[in-house]
Amino acid sequence: MFGEPLINRKFEEPFNESLLRLLNEPFNESFLKLFNESLRSHPLIMLSNEPSRRELLNELPRSQPSPFQPRDAESAKEELQHLVARAPEVVGQPGSRWTLKTVRAACGWMQGMSLSGVYRTLNRFGIRLKRGRDHVHSPDVHYLEKLADIVAAIEEAINSEGRVMVVFLDEFTFYRQPTLARDYCAIGRQTQPLAERTLQSDRSGRIVGGLNALSGQTTSLIASKIGLNQMVKFWQELRAAYPEADVIYVVIDNWPIHFHPDVLAPLEPQRTSWELKTPPSWPTEPSSRVKRLNLPIQLLPLPTYASWCNPIEKLWRWLKQELLHLHRYADDWPTLKQKVKEFLDRFRNGSEELLRYVGLTPNSKLFGALFDQRASPT
């Protein structure tokens, strides 16, 4: 019974005397539950073949196993990874993020662990604190069908011997003030990379750019804003970049200006089966001042809220990494705009390096299979 000496046996050396003294002390139930598993795993007890020592093990009270006890380490790892992939509130725990306490509370077989033990267990199974990132799930019910249209256009371009082009289009905003980022600097608290800001009011520049899916060639227009007139001008520059093309497919997001009647009027009639949505208050017919140029440009709308499907987004990341982070031109707006133009003009004749950077290669998760077929001998 609890409160009485657990055993009164005498053992010969070399059995651990301190363990014997521990076992002869009167303990309460909670103390025994805390230590009985460690006593059971004592190497001298586990390696002993003497009947008296085996009887000692049988007298140690066993805690009841959790109904969620994993069968093995791999099962435990899988269970924990599945647990932290869900929101705590889904399994009845408070808070929007996991803590060591809520992990322990939600995982039945961790109930007896200390917080340090929970941390070490998570660390063992490769589960650690990581910084989050912005994420949007595309709500487009036609996500796969729209991607299929883009894939079909790229396949057509690959087999067209230069008569069909596929261009990914997007807009980007840059500012007079530099953006913060890391840079190499001497260690210590006295020095730190600085974003030298100007006392002048901030200004912004807008870029509309196109990226050729096969060659890496870029076409771009820089202006103080991107509106109807700038989009029409960009269509003309895009046509001038590919004068021999029979059709130029432009993969484009769902910004309403892209589908304004004045922006569509210079293009040939659109063949897409997807609705090109604009606000109800906008006109449905183009204004009389817009020229009907019949440019051979066909728009392929991306799935809504699916920027990861547009590789040119990574070109803007490259621009920020190389030029805009911590730049020194806050007091020289014209020079900053010229530097941005020079960066974009580097790729105006195509670039394999750019294709690799944005993921338009056989290794791409999204479009890689297409380019793998292109690289394979026929």
Structure notes:
- This protein is 36% helix and 10% strand.
- It is globular, with a radius of gyration of 33 Å.
- The protein starts with 16 loop residues before the first helix and ends with a helix.
- The protein is built from 14 helices and 5 strands.
- By secondary structure, it is of the alpha/beta class.
- It has helices at residues 17-23, 29-40, 43-46, 51-59, 73-84, 100-106, 115-124, 143-158, 228-241, 261-264, 313-324, 333-345, 352-358, 368-375; strands at 164-175, 204-212, 218-223, 247-252, 297-301.
- The chain folds into 3 domains: 1-63, no CATH class; 73-124; 143-375, Nucleotidyltransferase, domain 5, CATH 3.30.420.
Give a quick rundown of the structure.
This protein is an alpha/beta fold and 378 residues long. The chain has 14 helices and 5 strands.
